[in-house]
Specification:
3 domains, 9 helices, Arc Repressor Mutant, subunit A, elongated
């Protein structure tokens, strides 16, 4: 009866029969055979089946230092045409899911097989980068602004100041917390990160900077709310007060 494996124990403890020989055991078999010992005697001495002894002796010229040869593995369920089709679709539709890939290409492959094919061609998945929406009108306006200023020097850029406003909320922007434990520890108080459902205190800040050799930046200005506005928030009047100051 095979010995049961304890948690975190050796995996080989479960397998007693049909195990793979070590390079040391193969060396014992080859050494005994070179000394004239027949396979039956080697089998009885090392407690290894005679069939294993004969196969070890016949395959010895193919091995290097008694190491096992790489196995052929499971036969592929796809051909080169399927692989090229998959790569072509992925490059054309990079945001497809694995389910959409199978439906579009008609390939009957599991997700792990698709991953292995793409990984072999150095194609992996990652979270899509975020950026503000750039419409054609905005892109055209940016192009019309940049083209006349292509050859500007430092003195020309010193005539401009760049400004922007931003909303800052207390408690926002904290780093992600990770915890060690089992699935049963997921909801323990020491493994939970609490957060407020309602928004915390927030303010609108404004600042600017300018270029050149003696360039600099302004102080961080806290904008005032416009209590005459509909929601008592920030309006054009708040922005004009900043520019006046």
């Amino acid at each position: 009866m095979a010995k049961l494996r304890l948690p975190l124990g050796e995996i080989s403890g479960n397998i007693k029969r049909r195990r793979e020989l070590t390079p040391y055991e193969r060396g014992q078999i080859i050494g005994a055979a070179k000394c004239g010992v027949n396979p039956s005697a080697i089998s009885a001495d090392l407690s290894i089946p005679r069939r294993t002894i004969r196969s070890t002796l016949s395959r010895e010229p193919l091995r290097k230092n008694g190491a096992s040869q790489s196995r052929s593995g499971r036969p592929r369920t796809y051909n080169r045409h399927d692989e090229r089709l998959l790569l072509r679709v992925v490059r054309q539709f990079p945001k497809f899911t694995y389910k959409q890939l199978r439906a579009f290409t008609g390939l009957k492959l599991c997700a792990s097989t698709l991953k292995s094919i793409l990984r072999r061609h150095h194609i992996t998945t990652w979270r899509a980068k975020k950026r503000p929406l750039l419409t054609k009108i905005v892109a055209k306006n940016r192009y019309c602004f940049c083209k006349p200023r292509l050859n500007w020097d430092v003195e020309d850029w010193r005539k401009f100041m760049w400004s922007d406003e931003c909303s800052a909320e207390r408690g926002a922007g904290k780093s992600v917390e990770w915890c060690f434990g089992t699935p049963a520890d997921k909801w323990k108080p020491q493994c939970v990160k609490a957060y407020k459902k309602s928004r915390d205190i927030s303010v609108m800040v404004w600042a600017c900077f300018w270029g050149g050799i003696k360039g600099g930046r302004s102080e961080l200005y806290i904008m005032d709310r416009d209590f005459e506005s509909k929601k008592y928030g920030y309006s054009a009047r708040s922005y004009l007060e900043v520019l006046e100051d």
